[in-house]
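Hello again,

I reread your note about wanting to compare the complex against the isolated chains. To keep things tidy I'm splitting this into two emails, and this first one only covers the full assembly. Below are the input lines as submitted, including protein chains and any nucleic acid or small-molecule components. They are followed by the predicted structure of everything together. The single-chain runs will come separately.
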Amino acid sequence: MKAQIIIAAAVPLLLASGVALSAAYALPEERVITLPPGPGADLATAHCAACHSLDYLTTQPPGLGEKKWASTISKMVDVYGADIPAQDRATIAAYLNRVVGTR
Amino acid sequence: MKDLLTPASALFGRRQLVLGLGTTLGAMVAGCNRAAPDEAPHPAAAPGTARLPFANGDRPMVQLPGKRPMIQLTARPPQLETPFSLFDTLFDQPSNQRLITPNNAFFVRYSMAQLPLDLDMESWRLDIGGHVEQPLSLSMAALRALGQISLIAVNQCSGNSRGFSSPRVGGGQMGHGAMGNARWTGVPLKTVLDAAGVRRGAVEIAFDGLDSPAMPQAPDFAKSLSVDHARDGGVMLAWAMNDEPLPFLNGFPLRLVVPGWFGTYWVKHLHRITVLDEPFEGYFMQKSYRMPDNECGCVAPGTKPESTRPITAFRVRSFITSHADGATVPAGQPLELRGFAFDGGSGIRRVMLSADGGKAWEGTTLGEDAGRYAFRGWRHRLTLPAGKHRLMARAETNAGEIQPLQASWNPSGYARNVVETVSVVAA
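Full-complex prediction:
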């Protein structure tokens, strides 16, 4: 019979047992982050959140510059396989440059 | 619990965080009460948030299964850093646990969004193949039967302290909390490689974990070491951390431990080792996690290096943990300062302390030596006159490496090790 290990409750005894066990880990449901409104907000949300949570955007420092955002978007497309139509990339870069890290 | 989940004070004018929390997190938090938060977020931060001391540094405090409340950088994949105030509490642990970072407070960092959340240990195997005499497929029991060693070693993210880079750079914006000191238990990698028989002509060993990218065409996260490094006897395959099974978020059921080297090499959820007769071509060796290829590993701020090389070992660092920046202390009374230092494996020779912003330095008293890869505690008594004082700790290694007084810069914000400053007011 397979035991469910809650990692938090794992004890040293398990180490010594050497018994094969199954482990399941449950991540909490993700908080939905709503980007501030503006041209590009919907595109950024749809394309970026397809692969990672939007805090990847919102925690970036101010002043990276539109060029850096554009190159990051290119990397997401070219390296990580993001499906972002070419005509949307500049819109998203301009939007992120305008809103991230400003408060 | 509601407070715990209150979003940071609006990052944007009208930023909204919809708390799409079902019963899952509710149950998790309720079930994790044993890990009471023993540190408060920065006083200036909103309830349930931490404020890292750089622009756009507000972060939610979250509690994931197996972890105490931690500073959340990202949710998917999960990335957590240890609240810095935790590190000073480690001095108060029993002597055999001193300066050991508890598993539930240890930082979490991932590159890949698909995690192996459902692991069947009945069918789990570690595969060793490639340029070997005898490919192996080992169950956890078979792996444990090969032998066992333990080692206290620091793990630190390449981008630990990236948020302090000046000028700022893109990437995970962490404070100093993406480091930890744990006792790792497992089998030397050399033992496993010898069991498989590395063939003549092998040059590198590649390591792959069970995490995978969000998009199938993206590069998988895999790393490599030279054959000589992999067989040095210190690099190990660890199944236990601080005498407990690895927490899921720290690599359950098996991770690579590369003492003295940055965490990018400490591949989590390890399941495949490949011996190569040519250099590994993976993206995370050839394109990412690279430093300027010069002596300082740095370039002029804002410029690009002419050539790069993979990041490797930690640079020496030290921290003051007893006092937070901006603290008020009693003037004219003896003050007990403490903190710790670590480096890439030569061990700490001494830690010096300055109370005047780096003009005059005094020696501190080192704590017990838990090994050359471990946190090394230090303490120092001094009396400060009324006024503002800039406290700095500066470590020197047995190999003669000493922390720089001026920060260097690299485009990825890796490997920060400048002497840090804690300003206090004596009154």
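For quick reference: Chain B touches chain A through 79 residues (CB under 8 Å).

B.
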